[in-house]
Amino acid sequence: MKENKISIIGGDLRIVKLIEILSHDGYSVFTYGLEKAENLKKDEKIVGDLSLEEVIASSRIIIAPIPFSSNGIQINTPFSDEKIAIEELISQIKNKIFIAGSIKLEIKEKLEQNGNMVIDLMQREELAVLNTVSTAEGAIQIAIEQTARTIHGSKVLVMGFGRVGKILAHMLEGIGANVYCEARKNTDIAWIKAYGYQAIYLNELEKHLDKFDVIINTIPSMILDEKRLDRLKEDCLIIDLASNPGGVDMKQAKQKGIKVIWALSLPGKVAPITSAEFIKETLYNIFQEVS
Amino acid sequence: MKENKISIIGGDLRIVKLIEILSHDGYSVFTYGLEKAENLKKDEKIVGDLSLEEVIASSRIIIAPIPFSSNGIQINTPFSDEKIAIEELISQIKNKIFIAGSIKLEIKEKLEQNGNMVIDLMQREELAVLNTVSTAEGAIQIAIEQTARTIHGSKVLVMGFGRVGKILAHMLEGIGANVYCEARKNTDIAWIKAYGYQAIYLNELEKHLDKFDVIINTIPSMILDEKRLDRLKEDCLIIDLASNPGGVDMKQAKQKGIKVIWALSLPGKVAPITSAEFIKETLYNIFQEVS
Amino acid sequence: MKENKISIIGGDLRIVKLIEILSHDGYSVFTYGLEKAENLKKDEKIVGDLSLEEVIASSRIIIAPIPFSSNGIQINTPFSDEKIAIEELISQIKNKIFIAGSIKLEIKEKLEQNGNMVIDLMQREELAVLNTVSTAEGAIQIAIEQTARTIHGSKVLVMGFGRVGKILAHMLEGIGANVYCEARKNTDIAWIKAYGYQAIYLNELEKHLDKFDVIINTIPSMILDEKRLDRLKEDCLIIDLASNPGGVDMKQAKQKGIKVIWALSLPGKVAPITSAEFIKETLYNIFQEVS
Amino acid sequence: MKENKISIIGGDLRIVKLIEILSHDGYSVFTYGLEKAENLKKDEKIVGDLSLEEVIASSRIIIAPIPFSSNGIQINTPFSDEKIAIEELISQIKNKIFIAGSIKLEIKEKLEQNGNMVIDLMQREELAVLNTVSTAEGAIQIAIEQTARTIHGSKVLVMGFGRVGKILAHMLEGIGANVYCEARKNTDIAWIKAYGYQAIYLNELEKHLDKFDVIINTIPSMILDEKRLDRLKEDCLIIDLASNPGGVDMKQAKQKGIKVIWALSLPGKVAPITSAEFIKETLYNIFQEVS
Asked: Does ipTM exceed 0.90?
C-alpha cells in the first residue's frame, strides 16, 4: 500500500503512542477525539484541528479505538471531552479500510454494507502473540509484588500452554522459577517437556497442587474449583489471566483466605509504548496484505 | 489398557533400550529378531527364545521396527542375523495392536484387513515434538565440531520456525548464540520476536545472509540456491536438517567451497536411550487411548 | 554445634519468619520484643512470655535485629510496643554467641569484652550473595512497573559487575532484555562477555548512554553526573541500588525531568520469607563454624 | 601505545588467525617461523620473507608461541619446518615487549636481564576468563557425543565453581540440563544457589553420586577416587577438564568400566578463531597498559 495518510479517531494511550510512531515513520496523521493528548500537538506532521468529516475524508485508512467501544453506544475517547456516537460515526465512513479492536458483528456488517473493508485488530493472530510478552511481564510483576518470596526458586504453576502460557513459562524460567505447566493434550505435554518445564496432566493436577507458591491461570474455564482450592498451600498466590468468567471460584477462594489477583488487559496497562509498537507492526502487515 | 505383555520383533538400539525400560516398568516382553542384543539376556522378565509364531501369540501388542523396513522386502533387524520378510511377518499377525514406524500404506491396509489396529509412531505428533530435543542437540554438536568459532557469540540463522526450529533456537540461545530465525508467516515472525530472537522474513533473507557464521535449515524446500549461496561468508557452515531433497543446492555449495553437513535421523544416532524413553512415553499414551 | 535452643530479641518480619523456620526445623525458640507477631503464638515450641533476662538466660545463642538499631539508642523492635535500649540490653549479655546485623564497632567491642562471640550477619559474604537474588528481583519489579515498555526487548544497562550486577544481568537476560553491563576492569569485561552480555568500559560509557531504556546502578559512587545525565533518552528510567550516597546526581536528574528510583534494602521488602530462609542458611553455616 | 608494527615468531593456528585479525585491524605484521600458513601469504600487509634478525628488529613488540615451548629446547612452530632454539632466540631479543604463553621463570628472567618487558598471556586473568567459553563449549560437545542420552534433561554435575565451572554451568543450564554444582566454600554454594543450580557441598557429594548421567570435573585434585567411583551409575560419563594430575583415579575408572574423557587445552582445538580473537583483546589491553 503506497498511501502515507492515516486518519485516527479516538483511542487510549496506546493509540497516542501509535500516532507518534506513525508520524516518526513518515505518515501524515489526521486525528479526531484526541485533543487532550498534549504530546501530539508538538508534532507538525500530526493534524489535530479538523472536523470529524474532514478527518474521515483525509485518508483511505481509518483507525478507531481498541476496544472500539465499552458501552455499545459511544466509541472510547479517553483523550477527549467529546462523546462520539457509534451510529453517527459509522454512518459517515464509506469505501475505507476501517481498523479497530473488538468490533461487534452488527457494526462490522453495517460498515461492510457501506463498502468498507473492516479489520479487527483483536482478531489478528500476530498481535495476540506479540501481546503475550506484555501480559507475561505484567503477571511476573504481580507475582513479585504480591508474594513474600522471590519468584527465583519458587514453584510456579502455569495452567494452560497456549499463547500466553508458552511465553509466561519461558520468562518465569528465565528469572529462575521452578516452572510447572499443566495441559490436557499429549502434544502440549510433549512441548512442555521439550522446553524443559515440569509437565502435569490436568487429570493429575490434584496431587501436585499442594506444592505451588504461585499459580497463574490462562484457561477461561473453571479449573480451580472448591475441591482443588482446598489442596493449595495457605499462602499460595493465584493470578488469573483468563477473561470472563476466569478459571477460579472467586467466592470459595475468598472464603478460604486464598489471595487471587484477576488481571485482565495487561498489555495496555503494563507497557503502552510496547503495545503501540506491536499495533504498528500489525498495521504494517495489514497494509502489505491490502495493497 | 490393562495388559502387561508386549511382543517386540526386530528393531535397532532404540528398541533394545525400549525393551529394557518396558521390563523395568513391569511389562513381560517377548522378543524375536533381537538375539544379538546381549544386555537383554540378563533380564529374566525378557523372553528371547521363542519362535516368531510364539512371540506373536504371546501378547495383544506387537511392536515392529522404526522404521519398519529400509528395503521394502525385509523388516529392519540390525540385532539379528535373521532376515524377516515383510510379507511373511504380516500374514501371521491378526487382531493385534500393531505399532511400528514409517509403515507403507499398502502394508497398513493389509494389516487392517486382518483385523489389526495399526499405529505409525512416526505420525504421532507428540513423538515428533519430543524428538526435536535430540535433533537440536545433535545439530549443536555438529556446529561446535565443524566450526573454528564458539557457537557462543556466533551469529546463527535457523531457517524455518516449525517444531525443530523452535527448540533449536531455544537451545542455541541457551548456549549464547546470537539467534536469527527466518519465517514467512506474520504469526511465526511474531512468535520469533516474542521468544526474543531476531526475526527475518524470507523475502528479506538476502540482505542478511552475509553475516551468519552458521545456518541451520529445517525447511524441506530449496531455499539456499545458487544466488543465495553467493551471499554467504566464505567460512559459513550450513547444517541441513531437512529430509529429502533438503534445502540446499549441494552441487553449487560444493563448487563454491561452502561446507554443508546434511544431518538426518539425528535422534537415533545422538541419543538412543533418550529416544527410547520418548518412544515409551508415546506408547503409554497409545495404550491409554486404545484402552 | 549441638545446642537446639535459640533466643531472639526484637527484629522485623524476616526475624518473625526466621523464628517459624527455626521452630519447624526443631529448635526451641525463646523470644522477646516480638509480642505483636500473632503467628508465633500458635506454635507451642516458641516461648514468648518470658522476661528479657529469662530469654537471655535460656540459650547460648542470642539473635538480635537486622539491622541492630536504626537510631543508635534502641534496637529495632517493629513487632513490639517496648523500647529496648541498646546499653541496657548489651550489659546483660555475657559469654554468648551474639548474632545481629550492622553492629557498630563500639557495641561489638563492648560485647566482646563481656566474653561474647559477636557475628555480624551483614558481613557474611554468603548472605550478601544470596540477597542479590531478592535485590535483583525487586529491581526488575520496579523496572516493569515504572516504564511504559516491556523489559523484554528493552535496552537495559547494569552499572557495576559486582555481586548484584552479576545476578541482575542474569535475570534481566532471562526475561528477554538486551543487557549491557558497564565495568572498569579488564577481568570484569571478560566475565561480562563470557556470560554473553554487551560489555561497556566505563571510559566509553558516554557514547552509549543515549540508547538505554533503563539504567540500573549498583556502584556507590557518582557515575551519573550532570554531563552523563544529559546524554540519556528523555524517558530513560534510572534505578539506583547503591547505598548512600548513590550513583546519581539526584538534583540534576530532577531538574532534567529524568525519573530516578532510589531503591534500598530491597530483600526485606520484596521477599521477607526468602530473606528469612537465606538468614537461616547463613545461621546454620555459623553454627557449623563455631561448633 | 601508538606503534602499529608487531613481530610474530612461531605459533599455532590461533597465532595464524591472530595475525589475520591484527592485519585487518591495520597493524603491519612481520612473521618468522610461519611460512607454511598459506593464508598469510595472500595479505600484502603481512611480511613473511625476512630473517629472524630482521623480524626482531622490525618492531618493539615480539609475540612468541602459546605455549612458548613444549620440549624446553625449541619454541613451538607447527607452521614451519624450521627449529628455533629457545636460547638462540632469546639471546637476540633486547629492549622489547615480549609476549608469549607459559614462559618458564628462568627464560623470563633472562629476557628481563636483557631489558625486555615480559608478559605471559597464560597469566592474564581476562584471557583465562574468556577461554572458559571455548572450554565449556568443547565439554558440551563431548558430553553430547559420548553419551546415549540428550544433555537436555540429563543430570549433570559440575565439580568446582571456579572460572570454568561458572560458565559451564551457565551453558549446560542453557541447553536444558539439570545442573548440579559441587563446591566447598559457603560463598561458592551461595553463588550456585543464586544462579539457580542445585548446590552440593563436597562433604555431601557421596550421597548424590548415583544420580548423575555426566560429571564434569574442573578441580586439579583427586576427588573421584576409588570409593567415589564405586557410587556412580554404570553408564555415567566423566569429563575431566583439570590439568595434570586431573581429578579422577583413571586406573580405577578403567577397571570399573567407567568412561572418562580427559580433555585438555580445549580452546585451541575447539575454536581457534575465537581463541585468536580473545588473544587479540588481551593484547590490546596489554598495549593500553604499557603505553
From this structure: yes
